[in-house]
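Hi R.,

Here's the chain you asked about this morning:
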Amino acid sequence: MYERRFFATINLAYVYDKDAWRGEHIVIMYKLIAIDVDDTLLNDELVVTEGTKRAMEEAIAKGVTVTLATGRMYASARQIAEQIQLNVPIITYQGSLVKTLLDGKVLYERSVPTDAAKELYAFTEKHGLHLQLYVDDQLFVKEANEKALMYSRLSKIPYTVAPDFEELLEQPNTKMLIIDEPDYLDEIAEQLKALIGDRVHITKSKAHYLEFMHKEGTKGHALRFMAEHLGCTMDQTIAIGDAWNDHEMIEAAGLGVAMANAIPALKEVADYVTLSNNDEGVRHVFEKFVLNAE
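And here is the predicted structure, written out as tokens:
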């Protein structure tokens, strides 16, 4: 049985056998780093700092694969990836879609089961909720209300108004999302877990976003796929995040890192807590565990 420990006083990340430890340090050479976007890679001004960009570039030059792992649509995440000049597959839609940047090839894809999607839609209609559908990397809403406008501005993605969702529900939905007040979403989340929780993964990327994906459409599943695709072990992976939807990949990664601004529940399962998104927390992780590790 192995236990992973990370000491803040040194730059070594090592694994030891707690039953037969002889004090031998084993340096882990990380090969894959997956980074959440909002409130992790981006600061509150929605910017990737130059210092963070440089740290990422240095890691890539050392042979490390750096990718994004976000709840955003591929079209939205691609804009961020191009800003930092990534050319690898990226994890989008909470892990429901892994797609290459160079040629747009789909490597991993999971859709919300049709029966569950229809039940969720019926629930939102009954309770007058704002529901968004994601089909073929396009965003669909029933009406152009303030929730849709705010979401579109943040993601920098246009939406299409489709008053009748019936036809769209027959197509593969990569993700479905409800926008509302945080406390109310927590309340209905429990009802929806009882209704469709056996068929879908339910999570939050932000306090006012309740999201629904395939059971295997998590960042944890996608990170495992990426590691296998690239030929590295999970011990050689780092995942960095801040919110509910990062839980699965933080637990799955060899080194799970929570931001200082992360929700308390994520800090509890993380191996390491870095600085906040406004203090270049991602840069700190690169420098501590990759660039300056000995």
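One quick note: The chain is about 35% helix and 25% strand.

Cheers,
M.
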